[in-house]
Design goal:
Chain lengths: 68, 360
Amino acid sequence: MTITGIAAIGAGIAVVGAGYGIGKIGGSAMDAMARQPEIQGKIQTSALILAAFVEAVALFGVVASIIS
Amino acid sequence: MTLSTFKNVFFSALFLTISFVGYAQEASGDDNDSKFDAKEMIMHHVKDAHEFHIFDWNGKPVTISLPVILWTDQGLVTFMSSEFHHDDSGTQIVEKDGLRFVKYHEKVYQLDAGTQELVFDAEHHPTNATLPFDVSITRNVFMMWVSVIALLLIFISTAKVYKKSNDKVPTGIAGFIEPLIIFVRDDIARPMIGDKKYKKYMPYLLTIFFFIWINNIFGLIPFLNSANVSGNIAFTVTLAAFTLIITSVSGNKNYWKHIFWMPGVPVPMKIFLMPIEIIGMFVKPISLTIRLFANITAGHIIILSLMSLIFIFETFAIAPVSVGFSLFILIIEIVVTAIQAYIFTILSALYIGMATEEEH
C-alpha cells in the first residue's frame, strides 16, 4: 500500500473519532435542551463551541493526510 | 444565542448566497484531448494563482491578468501575468530588464544567467532557476480587495442611514446589518469578554466576523469563487496571528501568572505545567488557523470532486447524482460560511476573555 493510501485511512479514522465526539455533544445538548428549554440558547452556543474543538482535531488529521 | 438571532443570521446567509450554480465551469477547464485529471483541477482551484480565471471559451481560458511584482537581486521587476500566455509548464519565457522568468506550477522562477530553458531533476524540481521574492497581486489578493470594497460599501451606507435618521430606526441596508452587529455584541462579545471590557474589542470582533463571512460567501458565488480566499492558509494564519497578538497584549497579570506560575498547585506541578501552558498559548491560534482553512478547503474539494465524477466516468448517467449531491453539499456550505465566521469570532472572544479575566 502506498503512503497516500495509509494517509487516507488515517484521515478516515480521525473522522470516526470526531463523528463520535460530535454525536455525543449533540445528543447531550438535545437532552439538556429537552430538560431545560429556557436555557436553550446558552446550551446551543456551548455545544457549537465544543463541536468546533472536537472538529479541529479531526481536521488536523485530514490536513496531515493531504500534506503527506 | 437566541433562536431569533440565529434565524436572522441563517436567513441572511441564505439570501446572500442564493445564486450558487456554476461550479461546473471549473470542471470543464480540461485542456485539449488529454485525460481529465480531477486532482490537478481541484488543486489548481484551491491554490493561489497569478491570474483570475473566469471561464473557458472554445478551449481557451478567459482570465483577468494580474500584475506580477518580483523583488530580484537586481531590484524590482513588474509585468502583467498575461505575458506568460496562460502557460504554467515553464516553457513561455518572459524577458524583463535582462532577466528571464518562467511560471511553473503557479510559481514564478528566475532563470539563471546563460540558460535558455527550465531543466528539471528526477523529482520535477527546477534545477537552473531561483525563486525571487514574490509580492505579486495574486488572485487571492485581488479577491480580498473586492471583499474589502464590498464591506466598505455596505458599512458606509449603513453608517449614512444612522446619520440621516433622527429616531435611529434602521432602514434599508441598516435593517439587515443591525441585527448582525447586535448578535456579535450580545451573543459573542458580552458573554465571552464581560460587560465591562467588551467595548474595546468590538471593532476587532466585528471586523473578523464580517471579513471571514464575506470571503466565505464569495467562495460560493460563481465567477467570484475562482479565488479561494478563506481556504488559503496564509489568510487564516494572519487572522489567527492578530488574535494571538491582541490576546497577548491585553493579557493582564492574572493571565500571565496562570501561564508561567500556576497558582494553587505545588511547586513541582507549577514547573510541569509551565511548558504545557506555553504550548497551549500557541496551539489556540494554530487551531483557529487549521479549522477555518480546512473547513473551507474541504467544502470546495468535496463539491469539485462530486462534479469531477461526471468527467471521470464520462457519462451523463452520473450527472443527476453528482449534481444532486453537490447541491446538497452547497446548501450545507451556506450554513458553514456563517458558522465558521461565528466560531472564529467567538473563540477569539473567548481567548480575549480568558486573558482579561479578573482574579477570582
